[in-house]
Design goal:
Helices cover 93% and strands 0% of the residues. By secondary structure, the chain is mostly helical. The termini are far apart.
């Protein structure tokens, strides 16, 4: 009987360690990926659902649904042991690995982006520059044409006034 209860104590101690590890998983997610408050609420609900499932599964599987005070003490002890001795190390290692992967992916994306940048520059130079050159020259030609045309009209109006005055 004592052996069975000691075995149950260690099972629920491990459950406490798993729950704390699950909590750290969500902490790592929050530190690496910025999310909206709504997503955070969903993550919290998911954490509590998973925690409840772990505890209920263990109670029904290992103790036939009987609830004992020492099981909850073992869970609290497991969470405490994990939080004091393991959590900081797991967080540092996980964040280091994730940030390293982010940096490596950033460098890879930058390397992949370089040919596209030069391709776009080449397309601009080969196709856009001649088109812009033609458009600018056509615009300049029409501007000069309209300016000359308006000057000609002004001269015609002035000469018409002189003709009308001469007739009178």
């Amino acid at each position: 009987m004592i052996y069975t209860q000691l075995q149950l104590f260690f099972i629920f101690l491990v459950n406490g360690l798993l729950i704390a590890l699950l909590f750290d998983f969500f902490r790592i997610l929050r530190k690496t990926i910025k999310t909206a408050d709504f997503i955070t609420y969903i993550e919290d609900a998911l954490f509590w659902i998973l925690t409840g499932f772990i505890i209920l599964y263990s109670i029904f599987t290992y103790n036939n649904g009987e609830i004992r005070l020492f099981m909850f003490l073992a869970i609290i002890l497991g969470i405490s042991i994990y939080s004091i001795f393991i959590s900081k190390l797991i967080l540092k290692i996980s964040l280091y690995i994730i940030n390293s992967i982010k940096k490596i992916l950033g460098v890879i994306l930058h390397i992949i982006k370089i040919p596209f940048y030069f391709s776009i520059k080449l397309v601009k130079k080969l196709f856009l520059s001649p088109i812009l050159f033609i458009i600018i020259n056509i615009r300049n030609y029409f501007t000069k044409f309209l300016k000359n045309f308006s000057n000609t009209l002004k001269k015609v109006k002035i000469s018409n006034k002189f003709v009308k005055k001469a007739k009178n």
